[in-house]
Amino acid sequence: MDRKQTRITTKEQSLDARWRSSTLADGNAAYLEDLYEQFLRDPASLPPAWRGYFESLPRVDGVERDVSHSEIREEFRRLAHQSPVAAVSREDSHAAPVESAHKQVKVLQLINAFRYRAHQTARLDPLGLRETPAIPELDLRYYGLTDTDLDAVFETGSLVGPRQATLREILAQLRATYGGSIGAEYMHITDTAEKRWLQSSLESVRGLPAYPPETRRNLLERLTAAEGIEHFLHTKYVGQKRFSLEGGESLIPVLDELIQRAGANGTKEVIVGMAHRGRLNVLVNILGKSPAELFREFEGKAQSNGGTGDVKYHLGYSSDIGSAAGAVHVALAFNPSHLEIVGPVVQGSVRARQERRRDSRGNRVLPVVIHGDAAFAGQGVVMETFNMSQSRGYATKGTVHIVINNQIGFTTSLQQDARSTLYCTDIAKAVGAPIFHVNGDDPEAVLFVTQIALDYRMTFHKDVVIDLYCYRRHGHSEADEPTVTQPLMYQRIRELPTTRALYARRLAQAGLVSDDAAAGMLRDYQQRLESGANVAPHLLAREKSEYAYGADWNPYASSACDPATDTRVSLETVRALTERMLHVPEGLELHPQVVKIYDARRKMAAGALPLDWGFAENLAYASLLQDGFGVRLSGQDSGRGTFFHRHAVVTNQKDGSAYVPLRNLYDGQPNFLVINSLLSEEAVLAFEYGYATADPKTLTIWEAQFGDFANNAQVVIDQFISSGEQKWKRLCGLVLMLPHGYEGQGPEHSSGRLERYLQLCAQQNMFVCVPTSPAQLFHLLRRQMRWLCRKPLVVMTPKSLLRHRASVSSLEDLTQGRFRPVLYETEALEGGNVKEVVLCSGKVYYDLTERRTALQRRDVAILRIEQLYPFPEEELKQAFQRYPAARRFIWCQEEPRNQGVWYQTQHRLWRTMPQGATLVYAGRPTSAAPAVGSYQLHIAQLHALLDEALGPLAKE
């Protein structure tokens, strides 16, 4: 036997003797393994007795590795089957002796069980309809303990408080902490420090601190305001939709506390996203919207400031609120009825504001998102947004989530039909967010979890969830009759006093507020409403506000989209920026293919090679950075580029580290961020929209991996990008890059769904462009920032054209040109001989020119419309004047007839053509799918549409 085996045998014998002298081995191997794992991670977290015991075992986590961890665990299992011998007792001068180590283990298990499971027994439901399950692990008998053990003294382990206590005292503390009006879920968190912090916060006050009288009276005042506005509107505007907060009035104290507590800790901006329920209440009682203005909206007398407007419970608002440490700018985001979509929009807006303030810790700008219970569990964008929360390109250092838990989804029973999880908030566990379920009819418990939630967020910079258990006093809207589908629930609701009434009674019983004083609060509030006076506390006049970090949108208010905006750069600038972009730091080893691309780009800058798309795009970014604009580009695989063309991020082949040349052009340059996004479209695009609405000085781009992947984000396109300016007067310069082009790759990798964007175009709301040369993209991107105009830009970007020999540009195109909405041919076509004009957009232009060359047709001109909206009618008319003899015009597209440009734009084409001209279609036939799956069929269709446009090739 070698020396190592001798050491193991000796230590095993010692271990065996120790086990045989106690009852520790009596069926507790699994628990002991957990304790041992905890000891390895954090020895100080264990009671001294257990720490001393484990310290006597062979070392497996330090320098000595004579015995493996698995060997010790196996010893636990072996000894667990041995019979106990004698009970271990210990006399203590201050407490009764602990009966046995066996029972001590069980008590520690009981403490742990309360932390894991007691939230299921907490008194959360104000209606009292929630069934409280029997949890065996919370019963003494489950551990072999009885009432005779209640006065025995045990080690309390990591339970906050005395190191020793009777079992009766331990149970009382656990039940008060975890079984009252708060159900805390945090044991799923993997970080020990976070769990210890939360345990200390909850257990140190036994689940609820004793608040001073002034705090409690202020809570009643805030509940009075929350109830008062709802009753006023209910009686004055009978039957009108308002999505009242009745039943969830505790939301108002939550928001008030969040703003005040955050402000006291140095927060300067709070950005709030929420759906309909309670929105009007929040606008009036938190943000200080004038009640008189709200009443005018109910009466249909509100003045429009342009655009089409929106219903009152979609509108946003902002104001400046005073706090102990100064002003806090609070903004409520605009949003449509599409549930939960505002969440990632808020995140994007917050990220832009944090970067503007250089708030790397997230202490100065706080995101708060208010959810509905059914939507929180049901909408996939919630999971996408949680998934972004700790990622590099999208983190905002933690969001406070508040779920208004009405315990119903319109008419849908939540537990039976709306989810498959115990709680609507279970999805938050995926990112280790603590969840505080709280009874909305216990305002002090609500206040306490609000304070813990904010403190946790500010300490650990991670998401946290407040699950506000409440109810919906009326139906889904005030015009709905809920008893049709939920008779029992609404019978109980009709019997239940309001949250304000219950709390007023509680304060009266405590001798803090008399019944007359509570009634007087309500009368005073109603009188202020009647007068139209502001009712929000702490509201600051704008001129007194310290808020000075807002983006200046005034230069863009007139939407001066001047097509003559100069986007040229000098040759010297091109070459200087290229040299900086292609600089390779010492120690950076490029991939051989990237080396070739870099060499080619050097030749392009020297004029020795024509410019390709990757070079022109990167140069556009570099020149904008030099002009003082930031650049933010995100999308799946955008760093390298899906089609191996961009290489804005290069990877060191030695160590895998990344280098971003555009971040290293010069000291003090604006920020350049290119990020490979998580595999999401909806949340990421919504994030980028939010970012772009908060920062007009950064070129913000979202790139789809393939154009039709934007289908997954259609709600963002429909409800925000295309209509946000009309509905809410929100300017936004977001760019969508959607790879588009038919190359035989099947229905899901061909079309960027151009027709959908054209269908959304109206009232000069956005730009839709299909550039066909590198220079066109260069000038288009520069135009987006250089002109005094901030509107969304949708770009159908190329795939195969990225390397097409004919799809190139020259240096002169960058230094002398600009973006041209219509491209006509400059070669020597005799205008008088041109009888036909083929109009097109995109890649099909190059197919048409090849066919025309093959046919040797000199009587056909081919024009490219590069900007499809706003439609360039004047430019097109001028182009047609070059061909006075042309009377036959052909629109040619590679998309099916019912897709692409034809149906959306032919009326505009008709307006531009000369009198007596004809317009015909050449393209793929109508189709339910965007493209065919067979490459051979794709080629056959391409030849057929070229035959229609220009005529067939001669048969050999």
From TrEMBL:
<comment type="similarity">
    <text>Belongs to the alpha-ketoglutarate dehydrogenase family.</text>
</comment>
<dbReference type="GO" id="GO:0030976">
    <property type="term" value="F:thiamine pyrophosphate binding"/>
</dbReference>
<comment type="function">
    <text>E1 component of the 2-oxoglutarate dehydrogenase (OGDH) complex which catalyzes the decarboxylation of 2-oxoglutarate, the first step in the conversion of 2-oxoglutarate to succinyl-CoA and CO(2).</text>
</comment>
<dbReference type="InterPro" id="IPR029061">
    <property type="entry name" value="THDP-binding"/>
</dbReference>
<dbReference type="InterPro" id="IPR032106">
    <property type="entry name" value="2-oxogl_dehyd_N"/>
</dbReference>
<dbReference type="GO" id="GO:0045252">
    <property type="term" value="C:oxoglutarate dehydrogenase complex"/>
</dbReference>
<dbReference type="Pfam" id="PF02779">
    <property type="entry name" value="Transket_pyr"/>
</dbReference>
<keyword id="KW-0560">Oxidoreductase</keyword>
<dbReference type="Pfam" id="PF16078">
    <property type="entry name" value="2-oxogl_dehyd_N"/>
</dbReference>
<dbReference type="Pfam" id="PF16870">
    <property type="entry name" value="OxoGdeHyase_C"/>
</dbReference>
<dbReference type="InterPro" id="IPR042179">
    <property type="entry name" value="KGD_C_sf"/>
</dbReference>
<dbReference type="InterPro" id="IPR005475">
    <property type="entry name" value="Transketolase-like_Pyr-bd"/>
</dbReference>
<dbReference type="InterPro" id="IPR011603">
    <property type="entry name" value="2oxoglutarate_DH_E1"/>
</dbReference>
<dbReference type="InterPro" id="IPR001017">
    <property type="entry name" value="DH_E1"/>
</dbReference>
<feature type="domain" description="Transketolase-like pyrimidine-binding">
    <location>
        <begin position="611"/>
        <end position="804"/>
    </location>
</feature>
<protein>
    <recommendedName>
        <fullName>2-oxoglutarate dehydrogenase E1 component</fullName>
        <ecNumber>1.2.4.2</ecNumber>
    </recommendedName>
</protein>
<keyword id="KW-0786">Thiamine pyrophosphate</keyword>
<dbReference type="GO" id="GO:0006099">
    <property type="term" value="P:tricarboxylic acid cycle"/>
</dbReference>
<dbReference type="Pfam" id="PF00676">
    <property type="entry name" value="E1_dh"/>
</dbReference>
<dbReference type="GO" id="GO:0005829">
    <property type="term" value="C:cytosol"/>
</dbReference>
<dbReference type="GO" id="GO:0004591">
    <property type="term" value="F:oxoglutarate dehydrogenase (succinyl-transferring) activity"/>
</dbReference>
<dbReference type="InterPro" id="IPR031717">
    <property type="entry name" value="ODO-1/KGD_C"/>
</dbReference>
